[in-house]
Amino acid sequence: MSDWYMLTLIGQDRPGIVAAVTKGLFEAGCNLGETSMLRLGNNFTIMMMVNSAAGPAALRTVLQPVVDDLELILHIDVIEAELHRRPVPDVRILVHGADRAGIVAQVTGQAAEAGLNILDLESDVGGTEMQPIYILQIEGLAAQGLDAIEQALAPLRAQGIKVDVVPIDTLIG
Amino acid sequence: MAVLDILTYPDERLRQASDRVQRFDAALQARIDDLEETRKAGPGAVGIAAPQVGWFERVIIVDVSGRKKTRSHGHLILVNPEITEWDGFAMGREGCLSVPDYTGNVVRAERIRLRAQDRDGNDLAFDMDGFEARAVQHELDHLDGLLFLDRLVSRRQDLFQRKVYK
Asked: Does the distance separating the beta carbons of B43 and A164 come in below 8 Å?
């Protein structure tokens, strides 16, 4: 189980990117682990864990026709897989406000000092071009508890940023 | 009493609907005791449903009383449970003894009215909300062959009003 690679692919968004990339990998005998595939702006971005006994050079050879055809950028790194060891988040932080530089840095900086380990972060720019708004959603582990994060982020509210710190109570049944 | 094996997805037996309990006999009591033993042996499970141990009758156990700041009716053995009213909705994260190493977001009714029988066949009725209501809905789904995987929602479409941490 040590033949794992992180493949990063980026290109201008168009229909069929995921299908072409995964078909190529499947036909070459590769197996996928966890993946993230999403559109950021007009770019389609893929990060995928790929298991392959063939080695990184062979992986690149397999994907080269797809990369050329769809004009993608491909990057390959050797990684440790560590599947089936998924931490369960216990806090969700929701932030939104008028867009300005520094929101992510402020929120995550304060939260990190209060013990936050981010498991998942996504942010979007919405609103209009004249009045953009920034929306940030974070899930993570609060090593020092939620109160610590709440207190660390509270001062940001005075700056016009809406911040909610919400517990995630995972039900196991 | 015995700790039973938990069926895990994609075992097809988890997809079958369970039958109503007809006889409240000694055999039922023994099976309920085994089901509870199995729940307690699991990693922090607040509930369990009979089909998870390969017993296809409508029996669930729910107990959220061990959780801080959680309204609860205590330890509940619910036979032939039925939800008769639903109100509101809330998103929450769920996992399952039958689906190891995965948790996901699921929308459930915030408040429910529940009718059931106890282990001796006496009628029970509850109004419940929040985490306890979620647990009952999760377990009751098992009786109909449903898993929380069937109800996953994306965080990206998260437009639901939530309780805010104070």
From this structure: no
Q: Which CATH superfamily is domain B12-157 in?
A: Peptide deformylase (3.90.45.10)
pLDDT tens digits for range B12-71: 999 999 999 999 999 999 999 999 999 999 888 999 999 999 999 999 999 999 998 899
Q: Is there a contact between B93 and A169 if contact means CB atoms under 8 Å apart?
A: yes
- Quick one: closest CA in A to B141, which residue? A173
Which of B12, B85, B110, B139 is flagged as catalytic? B139
DSSP secondary structure code for residue A24 in this structure: H
Q: A139 in contact with B at a CB cutoff of 8 Å?
A: yes
CA distance A151 to A149: 5
Put simply, the answer to whether B95 touches A88 (Cβ < 8 Å) is yes
Q: Which residues of A touch B44 (CB under 8 A)?
A: 172
Domains defined for chain A, CATH in brackets? 4-79 (3.30.70.260), 91-167 (3.30.70.260)
Of A139, A164, A173, the CB nearest to B139: A173
pLDDT in tens, A40-92: 999 999 999 999 999 999 999 999 999 999 999 999 999 999 898 889 999 99
Q: Nearest to residue A173, comparing CAs of B133, B157, B114?
A: B133
Per residue in A138-155, pLDDT (tens digit) is 999 999 999 999 999 999
Q: What distance in Å separates the CA atoms of residue B60 and residue B9, rounded to the nearest whole number?
A: 18
Q: Which residue is closest to B43 within chain A, CA to CA?
A: A172
- Side by side, which strands form the sheet with A4-12? A31-40, A43-51, A4-12, A73-79
User: B139 catalytic, yes or no?
Assistant: yes
Q: What is the ipTM of this complex?
A: 0.86
Q: How far is CA B133 from CA A21, A143, B25, B157, in A?
A: 43, 28, 28, 23
Domain ranges of chain B: 12-157
Give the tokens for residue A117.
């380990």
| Spacing of C-alpha B72 from chain mean position | 14
Count of A–B CB contacts within 8 Å?
70
